[in-house]
Amino acid sequence: MENLPFEIIATSKTFRFLVGLNKKEFILHAALVAHLSKPLATLVNGQMKEAREGYAEVPEFDEGTFALFCQFAYTGDYKVPLPLPRSITPNSTPAPIPGTKAQPRTANRYAGTPIISLDSSRSCVLCENFRETTYTIPGPHPPPEGTLLTGPPKTMSEVFLSHARVYVLADYYDIDRLKIRSLVKLHYSLANFELKSETLDYIVVLTEYCFKNTVDKGNEKDQLRELVLRYVAWKVDKLWKSNAFHELLDGSAEVSKSVIGAMIGGKAPW
Predict the structure, then answer these.
(1) Could you tell me how far CA 8 lies from the centroid of its own chain?
(2) Strand 14-19 relative to strand 55-58: parallel, antiparallel, unpaired?
(3) CA dist list (Å): 137 to 10, 140, 178
(4) What's the average model confidence in pLDDT over 184-190?
(5) Nearest to 145, CA basis, from 105, 186, 113
(6) Higher pLDDT, 8 or 249
(7) How far apart are CA 199 and CA 69, in angstroms?
(8) How far apart are CA 35 and CA 4, in angstroms?
């Protein structure tokens, strides 16, 4: 990790993280973990039970997300592979997304209702709002895309969720550098993604995950929510054709108001 001598890392004690429901063990150097953020420094070196016993249980996060966190801790970056190309026929059903229930294919109950259509000028503004989103990245600037030696995910939905989960972990432990990197990578992935009818639900699942796992803090908007909302506002005319998108809006007033706010460029009234 930048600004931390390797000798300090290599000679420090180790700290064990028992991750997920299966308590998979991850062993990291305590000095490196403590260097990432104040909450982590307190966890491994403070007066808490975990610091005294040298381990902590982390049921909040899955093993894959924590592995990406470990990669960042030791290298200053993490990489999520892109899915292998696969052919999609018009009648094919996308693979179910991990952690969700597969839903049977049904006719679009909104097929007879008007589809949202944005005038070209507003559509351009929404596109620019998303594409011109920038973040200040501390330290070296590795490219946002990358590959790992592990097998690639099956769909781009898994890529989007991987970056979102890393953001949530980074927010939980107050690791600003990791939060920004995850936002840059998600922004890059979305900006280069061709949204089609068979992949609309990828964005719905991502949006739902963001709202379930992040919160706005006072007048400070959560950055992950803001990024995803900008993309949704830009692509809302396509997303309107998705039953799952309508169900998400029907089921959450917070999501509905936030989407409308992103579309009109205004601030939500709550």
Answers:
(1) 32
(2) parallel
(3) 26, 8, 9
(4) 93
(5) 186
(6) 249
(7) 27
(8) 8
Query: Edge to edge, what strands does the sheet with 55-58 contain?
Result: 24-29, 14-19, 55-58
Coil vs helix vs strand at 234: helix
Strand partners, 17: 26, 56
Token representation of residue 262: 């992103």
Tens digit of each residue's pLDDT (9 = 90 or more) over 124-146: 778 877 877 777 655 554 555 54
Pick from 72, 44, 74, 70: nearest CA to 56: 44
Burial call 219-242: b when 16+ CB within 10 Å, e when fewer: eeebbbbbbbbbbbbbbbebbbeb
CB 232 within 8 A of CB 204: no
pLDDT at 171 over 60: yes
Side chain identity at 133, as an amino acid letter?
Answer: T
The DSSP secondary-structure symbol of 56 reads E
Query: Quick one: which of 270, 192, 261 has its CA closest to 232?
Result: 261
Quote the tokens at residue 166.
Answer: 């890393």
Report the distance separating Cα 243 and Cα 237, nearest Å: 13
d(CA 5, CA 17): 23
How high is the pLDDT of residue 269?
40
Class of residue 262 by CB neighbours under 10 A (exposed 0-12, middle 13-18, buried 19+): buried
Cβ count near 109 (within 10 Å): 10
**CA nearest 17: which of 76, 47, 62?**
62
Q: How far is Cα 3 from Cα 33, in angstroms, rounded to an integer?
A: 13
pLDDT confidence of residue 137:
57
pLDDT grade for 93, boundaries at 50, 70 and 90: very low
Q: Provide the total of helices (H) and of strands (E) in the chain, helices listed first.
A: 13, 3
